[in-house]
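Assemble and predict.
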Amino acid sequence: MLFRKRHPAQEILSIEGLPLPCQLLRSKRKSLAVHVRHDAVEVRAPLHISTADVLVFLDKHQRWVKRKLAEKQQRAAESLSLKDGGQVYYKARALRVRLENASRGGVEIDGDQMIIRGPAISASKAEAVLKQWLLQQARSWLPPRTRALAEYLEVGHKLKDVVYRKTRSKWGHCTAGGRIQYNWLIMLAPDGVIDYMISHEVCHLLHMNHSPAYWQSVAKVCPDYQRYVGWLKQHEHRLWF
Ligand SMILES: [Zn+2]
């Protein structure tokens, strides 16, 4: 009978110079890999590699790990917060949130402040008020521009509906049936980014894919699209609530 020595599922290594604990997970894999989570650094390693070799590997990647950690911490510090004194990134400007009691709900931009009003206002009520405000903007801004671009590209007959949905992973979506869905959080973004989103979805009425031909049609109606794609990559973590 064969007795296999059981490996501990997880070891914690503490590495000099790293502010977070490092979890070492061994499994039946062939190579070493390191991931930076929000609260730990995780190293995945083959079963029989020595801890000394893992440390050498980590040492080699220390700069990358530190850069990733700093990025994550900065992103966490920049994230949207709807409590009084919190922050919102609206149209590429960092605004301070002010909550104000009022009989009616509403949002007002005043200088570098976003004032969110409502009865017995709290952070969670502010969320509902801001959602309504953004939805209202989405409803008045997105359909006419979507329709106009679809007509211009001669695919107006394919556009059936414009709907709004906050999904965790997407800014927009276009179905084969001609229904375009927008994430209303996009209304927090600058107008150029919103217009890029509209171009992105409407061009799917021409090509239901992300082929080179698709991106060529996007570039025709939105020549700066790469800039907006870049903006979203860099800032989208600041728009979610
Ligand atoms: Zn797409």
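Residues 130-238 form a domain with the Zincin-like fold (CATH 3.30.2010.10).
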